[in-house]
Prior knowledge:
By secondary structure, the protein is of the alpha/beta class. The protein has helices at residues 67-76, 92-107, 143-152, 167-176, 190-198, 220-228, 243-252, 301-310, 315-330, and strands at residues 3-11, 14-22, 26-33, 43-46, 48-53, 55-56, 59-60, 80-86, 115-122, 155-160, 180-183, 203-204, 231-234, 255-258, 271-275, 278-283, 286-288, 346-349, 355-360, 363-364.
Amino acid sequence: MTRSINGNILTPDGWVRGTLRYGAHIDAIDGAAADPASNGDDYILPGFIDVHVHGGAGRDMMEGGDAPHVIAALHAKHGTTSLLATTMTAPVEDIDRALAAIGQACAARGKGEARILGVHLEGPYINSGKLGAQPPYAREASLDEVKRFDAQAPMKLITVAPEIDGHMELVRVLADAGIRVQVGHTTGSYEVGVDALAHGAAGFTHLFNAMPGLHHRDPGMVGAALAHAEYAEIIPDLLHVHPGAIRTALRCIPKLFCVTDSTAAAGMPDGEYMLGRQVVHKCMGGVRLANGSLAGSTLTMDQALRNLVSIGLSIEDASRRVSTNAADYLGETLRGRLAPGCHADFVVLDRDLNIKAVHIEGEVL
Length: 365
């Protein structure tokens, strides 16, 4: 059944004021080019894509069971139409439990849920010297183990510390296999970062966080990203990264995109929650370990969009950062854009950029 919706539609060619016709996919977009500032109609944007989701609604991906479905439903309410379920550094039995549940959720999207495209394996192949909020179970990577994990749930993205013995070679093997590799939770230098990109690394995990920062005589991993990366993810909750640093990254990295790094505390009141095997505390507008260190976020992608606009981005540019760039990064040509033939994944926002409706593969939430 074909349905339609009217408003200011953000297409790959710019704004169209008109009608979007859709079923499970977009059938047509009719109308004329227009500046949304000239009218009071709603904004219709591509659905948000989040490649770094640990939890939400009180649930954590590492729990297994129905946790991926509950988490996907929470984020769908905030405009995320597709996501990568993100794991924690943990003993192998914990990862296996999580992947078994994520694999089932990938195979069957539930009503009212964001599409889970696959897994972001954030650990255990990271540096124990830059764990951040990750539990102390970091270890060297094994290609056989990656293959076993991939058999349980599709590995779309893996965070790796390339300075660890054997990891630089693994970066090339994984990249050649079509798995995106991000540099993160790393003590590596600028030179290591440049080498990792040359070996096929595609981006950087939560840029600025859990990596050596920029110094004019020692550019560090952040310097490698700013000088050489086409893609990197960043957490725009305005807590993990200062707005000025976000704007610096926007000037340097052409296809910088946003992630939430959300935890079980997303969508929940202040209190204690689990992040893998660790207890975290939602308080003071964020999520922290007992020692006060940041431990993921409570961010949702609709708030990420509003935050970007609040620091000076246009709605069009902000939309690319929460949708299109991530789709391109993952090779998802039928998501992250509003054009005939694409999945009917879109959000309807009022003039204050608040969610009015979410459409996922034609389903209206």
